[in-house]
Design goal:
12 helices; about 280 residues; globular; alpha/beta; seven-stranded parallel β-sheet
Length: about 280
C-alpha cells in the first residue's frame, strides 16, 4: 500500500508548498512512484507557482465527483507529465519536460477560487462523523492506489475537513516552521493539542525548520525548537521559482536527509553529507 506523507504548517508563508513539491519531485527522481495532492484550498498556489494545471484533471473535479457519486477513483482526475506535454505553448512544454515521469498530480486548477470548492459536509448536525467517514474513504483510496508515496499539502487550519482528520490518518506528518518567535509559539500550542488527541502522534510527527540562517548553528536553533531537519535559506530559491521550479538543488539535497529520517530508500546526491537530528 502507498504511504501517506502530509506536510503541515500552522500559518502561510512557511515554505510548505516549496518543501512538499520538492520532496515529491526528489522521491520521483529516485524512482519512487509519487502522487502529489494539494488540499490547501484556502491558499492555492501550486498552479500559480508551477503552471501545473488542467481544466478537468484536478482536485476540484475529483472532490465534486466523490461528493456527488460517493466514489473515490483517482485515475480520471490525476494529471501526468504526458497530459501536461499536450500543450501548444512551447515554453510550457520545455518546463514540463523537466518533470520526473514517475510524479503525478492532483492539484487545484489555475484561477481557482475557494468558494468554488465543493462542500464536503452536507449535514451540519452530524458534521464530525461525516468528515471522519469522508476522510477515511479518501485516505483509503490513496493508500490502495498504484503509488509508492502520496505527498499531501495540507491546509493551515486544523478545523478544516483536510486538517485534523487527515493528520490523524496519515502515516507521517512533516511540520514546516520558520525560525520566528510567533510561528514557533503557535506551533508548540498546536503540537501539544495534537499530541494529546492523536495516540501515535510522536511516532509519526517530524519538524523541519525552514529558511534557517546558515550563520546560526543547528544547536542554537534546536534550543528553541527540537527539529528533525534544518533547511537553510537558499539565495538561489527565488531564481528557481521565477523559472517555475518548485525548489533549488540545495533544497532538494537537504530533503534527501528527510527521506532517510522517514525510512524512505534514497541515494544521497549531496557532495557533503550533513548530520540530521533523530526523532524525538
Amino acid at each position: 500500500m502507498a504511504e501517506v506523507l502530509s506536510f503541515y504548517s500552522v500559518a502561510p508563508s512557511q515554505g510548505k508548498r516549496t518543501l512538499s513539491l520538492s520532496f515529491a519531485e526528489m522521491l520521483a527522481e529516485q524512482q519512487h512512484r509519487v502522487l502529489y495532492v494539494e488540499l490547501d484550498y484556502k491558499h492555492p498556489s501550486v498552479a500559480i507557482a508551477t503552471q501545473i494545471t488542467h481544466n478537468t484533471k484536478n482536485a476540484v473535479e475529483y472532490f465534486q465527483e466523490s461528493v456527488m457519486k460517493k466514489t473515490f477513483a483517482l485515475e480520471p482526475f490525476v494529471l501526468s507529465k504526458d497530459d501536461l506535454l499536450i500543450n501548444s505553448d512551447q515554453k510550457l512544454k520545455r518546463i514540463y519536460s523537466r518533470l520526473p515521469s514517475k510524479l503525478e498530480y492532483l492539484v487545484l486548477p489555475l484561477n481557482f477560487h475557494e468558494n468554488s470548492f465543493p462542500s464536503i459536509i452536507s449535514d451540519v448536525n452530524n458534521a464530525e462523523q461525516q468528515a471522519q467517514e469522508f476522510i477515511q474513504k479518501f485516505i483509503y483510496s490513496l493508500k490502495s492506489s498504484k503509488y509508492h508515496y502520496i505527498v499531501l499539502n495540507l491546509p493551515n487550519e486544523l478545523q478544516s475537513v483536510f486538517g485534523f482528520e487527515v493528520i490523524s490518518n496519515s502515516d507521517q506528518v512533516i511540520n514546516v516552521v520558520t525560525p520566528s518567535a510567533n510561528r514557533i509559539y503557535e506551533f508548540k500550542k498546536i503540537e501539544a493539542f495534537l499530541s494529546k488527541n492523536i495516540p501515535d502522534f510522536d511516532s509519526k510527527f517530524s519538524t523541519v525548520i525552514n529558511m534557517a540562517n546558515p550563520s546560526i548553528s543547528d544547536e542554537e536553533y534546536n534550543q528553541l525548537l527540537r527539529s528533525d531537519l534544518i533547511v537553510h535559506y537558499d539565495s538561489e530559491r527565488q531564481l528557481e521559482e521565477l523559472s517555475l521550479r518548485p525548489g533549488s538543488e540545495q533544497i532538494m539535497q537537504q530533503l534527501e536527509l528527510l527521506a532517510i529520517h522517514l525510512n524512505i530508500s534514497v541515494t544521497l546526491t549531496m557532495a557533503k553529507k550533513k548530520p540530521f537530528f533523530s526523532r524525538r
